[in-house]
Design a protein that fits this description.
The complex is a heterodimer of chains A (165) and B (446). Chain A is 38% helix and 21% strand. With 165 residues, chain A is α/β, with parallel strands linked by helices. Chain A has a six-stranded mixed beta sheet with strand order 3-4-2-1-5-6, with helices on both faces. Chain A has one domain: Rossmann fold, CATH 3.40.50.620. Chain B is α/β, with parallel strands linked by helices and 446 residues long. Chain B contains 19 helices and 17 strands. In chain B, helix 2 packs parallel to helix 3, helix 17 crosses helix 19 and helix 18 packs across helix 19. The N and C termini of chain B lie far apart (66 Å). The chains are: A alpha/beta (165), B alpha/beta (446).
Amino acid sequence: MEKRNLLFVLYPEEKLDGLLSYAIDLAKARDEDLCILMVNKTDSPAEGNGHEMAREINTGDEKAGEYKKSVRAIVDECKKSGVQVNIFTVGADSVSAIENFLKQKGGIGMVLLGPRLRMSENITAEEMSNLAKRSSVHIFGMARRPLYAITHGKEGYCFPSTFSV
Amino acid sequence: MALKILIAEDEAITLKHLIYTLQQEGYYVEGAGDGQDALRKIESDFFDILIADIKMPGLSGIELLERIKKEQLETEVIIITGFGSIGSAVEAMKKGAYDYITKPFDIDELILRVKKIEDKKILKGENTALKALFGVNKKISIIAKSESMKKILSLIENINDSDCNVLLTGESGVGKNLIARMIHFTSKRQDGPFLAINCATLTEEILASELFGHKRGAFTGAVATKKGLAEVADTGTLFLDEIAEMSPSLQAKLLKVVEEGEFFRVGGTRSIKVDVRFIAAINQNVKSLIADGRFREDLYYRLNVMEIDTPPLRKRRKDIEPLSRYFLQKYLPGYNKKIKDFTKEAMDILKNYSFPGNVRELENIIERAIILEKKPFITSKSLPQTIKMFHIETIDPSNIKTIDEFNMEYAKQVVEMLGDNKTKAAELLGISRTSLWRILKEGNRS
């Protein structure tokens, strides 16, 4: 039987510095494989809630080209670390994308939300709370530490989008 | 549980005498008047020992031996041969008989041979149980400095006289397996086997066969009859990890074992009775699993006679330091390093991290640090950079903060770290001083 998966949910524009290594280390510690769900918040839900393997995205599309590049980098890093990875992309709002994904795909051990998604103004506290209530797996959110930003400068530091006032 | 013995003997008086004598010794004994009758019984039930006369009408003892070795590899056979037919005895031994005895024989001699088989089976059972333990010593110790873990240890102590089923809940990596072992090894069943199985790692068919055993030919690849863990764990404890991953049909079968202590082997027609204590573990939200129909409510209540919820490591931060030191001592000998302790900075980093992977994640981090560290202390440099970069929080429905609250807390942290210098904080956050002031104010208001 396949190993369980750590579901890592990201916006495609999320900077991967450190994030992926963190998710890989965590998956290894939990003896799980990695499942990455890229939530394309700019896509309209009409494009469908179905999950599509990122590598199958139309190569002619400019956006798809960026995805492909990002997917390749993820696959390479996971391969180097010996963690199996499956990447999915979905054009829907984050909460329903995660809920649908959990319903459709079994064997998810935990959900980890990328910093941008966790801090997104598109997700209300109520939606997040309902997601956690309805989900049978534990959901965790990531935030970059201010201390790290202070000691290492602004580079690699991502301030929540909600701060852009 | 008493050994099950089948005696195949065509002489009615001898058969009756043997049945009576072995029953007096405490064994469960059945008799068969000829080879065909014995074969029918073997096909419908499992016997630990077959005692068969070599000469019987219809089917000889040797033919019966051949059939039983095809059907039930674990059944040991003692052949009774007539005086002077040593050749047949040798043939029987070559075909897999455990022993032979020549007529006329002293009944004590036969009992001695049966007892030898019994000892062998006990040893085999213990060996299986030990293998399942992966060499872990019976003496289980749990590091507990936090109040919540101390309460769990005291609860385990309180239930050591009880034989109730236990449901362990808690996130993955909190140590449910260790707690299950502790419950078993402090209970009245400590001399019985402790067997553990992870229900998430096996397919439905394999899990059914592992749990309940199977009859030869029950499915492709079932070349011999095999006992399941529920049977091997008789008089002991069976730990079912990640039980919610079990299919609904298997959950129904398990419910029968939990309720009645009875089950059928896969492909079997006769029920097997066992005396097993069940400890099950779930690392998901049980209520949501029941609501989704993924976990049977009746099974939940049967297993949940006593529920022990192990808190995640981030909710018992007092345990981080002693656990870190424990893992340091555990892994040091393997890497031939002379590391004395942790620097304060390294320990502070560990204490402030959320550990979504719980104790298992801490263990990995410490082992990795030992490998990387060149100084006599574990420094922050040998800890993963990522645990310093990110703050991980659980999305707890009861503790959801509004974005304003979250932003305010975040901004407050930055301001505090810069010694209350708001101008510097605003600059670092990439916002104006007025915006920072507004965030702090709005957060307070909400």
